[in-house]
């Protein structure tokens, strides 16, 4: 057992530590279709996640509060209860991020699940890249997972993202929004301040706090305009349109403030 050939090699151990998160996040998959569970398990394990599985709403709700997952993947169409009720029961006990999986044609269920406290959704069939991206966002927003961003004071760090040659920088604490064409620091980069009305700023600030996550019309309206305006989707369309005119290269083909059809909006994730 003391054979030096079996001693861990420090250099190798160090490089592994650098490449992998210190903590392998646990994903709870609540899904009744076995082939999809198998696919999810294989994909997630290959990408350094740990996986627990449940095939029913009942078992899933139990595991959600007893195994302390870092994120939950929840199918909306379960045999014994619907995903909406599962979301509500889990939310009574836990803040763990929930990403719902839904089939096409379940749009109203999807919206209701988000309004009930789910964090994001994936429409089946989905690609591996999209699945992993949604999980990364969910984990970044999780208050329970000590990810690499933990304790960085993300609330105050300015949001910055570059898409299609334009950089959008939003400093919430300074209330400043800047648009730069060509990457910042490059020759020819021109930076200008986008002047927003107080309501436009309030809407943008809410999107920034949840960047990368889908927000339903109802969530945004309640938060920005107040509960009495929860169904005034037209307000939101007008203000989102004004923001796009000020921030997007082409307001008709938005890349920063993206529409989630029938659901709401998603601000592109910060990528600096
Ligand atoms: Ca199902």
What features would you describe in this structure?
The chain is α/β, with parallel strands linked by helices and 272 residues long. The chain folds into two domains: 23-144, Response regulator (Rossmann fold), CATH 3.40.50; 159-267, Winged helix-like DNA-binding domain superfamily/Winged helix DNA-binding domain (Arc Repressor Mutant, subunit A), CATH 1.10.10. It has nine helices and twelve strands. It has helices at residues 10-19, 34-46, 57-66, 83-93, 107-115, 128-141, 198-209, 217-224, 233-247; strands at 26-30, 50-54, 71-75, 98-103, 120-124, 159-163, 166-171, 176-181, 190-193, 214-216, 257-260, 264-267. The chain has a five-stranded parallel β-sheet with strand order 2-1-3-4-5, with helices on both faces. Strands 6-7-8-9 form a four-stranded antiparallel β-sheet, with no helix packed on it. α3 (57-66) runs parallel beside α4 (83-93) and α4 (83-93) packs parallel to α5 (107-115). It is globular, with a radius of gyration of 21 Å. The termini are far apart. Bound molecules: calcium ion. The site of calcium ion has 5 residues, from loops.
Number of helices: 9
| Second CATH tier, the architecture of the largest domain | 3-Layer(aba) Sandwich
Give the percentage of residues in beta strands.
Answer: 15-25%
Runs in which pLDDT lies below 50 for 5 or more consecutive residues are: 1-5, 7-19, 143-154
The CATH topology of the largest domain turns out to be Rossmann fold
